[in-house]
Amino acid sequence: MRRISPKLLIAGGLGVVGLLVLVFAFVGNHSVRGYLDDNYKRVSSNGSSIVYTSDQKPKDVYADIRSAVDPADVQTDPEGYFLRYSDDIVGITAAGAGSRIYLDDERHGYAHWFPFVAGVWGTGGGLGEGVRGGGPGAGK
Amino acid sequence: MSRLLVIPACALALLAAPGAAAADVIFDQADADELAATLADAYEAQGVCYGWSVAVDNEGVPQTSVGSNFGAGQSLQDAGAGCAKTVEFTASIVWTPESSESEDSASYGVSSSPGGPTVDDLDDLEIISEGGLEGDDVDVDVYKAVAALPLLAADTGLAKPMEASPAPEADSANEQPTNSPGGDFWRQSGMQILWGALILAAAVVFGWYVVRSSRRPPRPIGPAAEQIPDRPSEPFHQPPAPRPPPGPPARAWSPPARRPEPRQDQEPAPEPAPEPAPESAPESAPEPRARPRPESTVKPEPGPEPDSRTRPDE
Q1: Which of B61, B128, B175 is the mutation pick for testing A, counting most A CBs within 10 A?
Q2: Could you tell me how many CB contacts below 8 A there are between chain A and chain B?
Q3: Does residue A98 belong to any structural domain of this protein?
Q4: CATH number for position A67
Q5: Prediction pTM value
Q6: What is the DSSP letter of B278?
Q7: Edge-to-edge strand ranges of the sheet holding B105-112
Q8: B172–chain A Cβ distance below 8 A for any pair
Q9: Is A102 part of a structural domain of the chain?
Q10: CA separation for the pair B310, B283 (Å, rounded)
Q11: pLDDT digits 0-9 by tens, B125-178
C-alpha cells in the first residue's frame, strides 16, 4: 500500500478545517426571530409583532441577544435598548425585576419606538451631522 | 457719525456669532438640549443626577462639552451640588492637526456614587470605543453612552429601572425607516465565510502543488560514460576527420594515444584478431580524406575519382 505524503495530509486537514468553518457559517444563527422564539417565553403576538418576557435584567438580555445575533445598530435610552436588524427591530425594556422584549418588523418597530429611534434609523429628526467642531483629525 | 459706529458693532457681532454657536464642541445645540432633557426625565424617575463632561484639545485649543439633567452647558460639578447620587460620563479627546506627526487620542470613563456603574459596565454594552471618539461620529457615541447611564444605574441597583411601552403607530404615521442596515446573514457570517473560503482555497492550492510535485517524472540516469559527449575535441592543428564508414574499427588504424575513444564500454570488445599487421591496416581501413598521404606524392596527376574509391582497386 502506497504511503500518503505528509504534505498531502496537511492539505487535506486544511481543507477539512475550511469546510467546517463554512458549514458552521451557513448553519449558524442568522434570524433574531428564531433565536427569540427558541430562548424566550412568548407573552403575546399580533401579526409580526411578538412580545417575550425574561427573568433577566435588561442589560443581560441585551447582551445575550446581541452576542447571539449581531445587530446592525443599537440605540440606548434611559427606558431601554433598541436593536436594529435587516427586517426587524427589537426593543428591550425593564418589566418589574425582569425584562420585556418587543419584536416587530422594521416598519412597525420604527413606529412603536419612534420617540427613541426617530431620525437615527429613519425620518423624523435626530442627531446632527458633522459635529467634529472643525477638528482636523478625520482620517488620522 | 452713528453709521460709523454701527458698522464696527455689526462686524464684532458677526465675529462673535460663530464662537457662540460652537460653544459645544461635540453636539449641536439641539442635540445637547435633547440629551439634557432625556437625563432630566431619568432624574425625575430615578432620583439620580446624570451628566457628561468631555474635554477636547482641538488642535491645541481647549474646548469642552458639558451638560447634565439640569441643562446643556451645566456641568454636574457646578449644578449638581445637592445631588445624593450622581453618575457622569467623562472623556478626554485630543484632535491633532493633519500636519502633525502625533495621532489623535481619546479616553473615557464613568464616575459615579458608590455602588454605581463603572466604565466596565459601559464597555459591556459595546456602544462606545476610544477609536470612535477619535472619529467623526463622536457625537453619536457620546450620546449613546450618556443616554445609557440611567440603564446602567438601574442594572447596578443604584436606581430603579424605567419601563417603556410601545407608542401608538398613529403618532408616527408619516415617518418611516430609512438606510437599510444590510442583510443579517452577511453581517453575522460574512467574515466566517471569508475565512472558510480562504482556508479551503489554500488547501486546494497546497494539495495541487503537492500532487503535481510528486508526479514529476524522475530524471533519466544512465551509466556515467553515456554522459560523455561523443566527439572529443580535436587537436587544433588537425582538420576535423570524417566519421569512418561502417567497417573495421578505425582504432586499428589510428593510434590510440591520439584518438582516444570515449565510448569504449559500448564498443565491441577487442577480438583477439591474429592479423593486426601494421602494414595491412592502412589498406583495409579507409583513410581520412583530408589527411595527406604519401600516395598523393606518388601520383601527381589527379585521378577521376577520390582516393578512397581508388584505393580498394589498388
Answers
A1: B175
A2: 246
A3: yes
A4: 3.30.310
A5: 0.65
A6: T
A7: B71-72, B61-68, B49-58, B86-95, B105-112
A8: yes
A9: yes
A10: 11
A11: 999 999 999 988 899 999 999 999 999 999 999 999 999 888 877 666 677 787
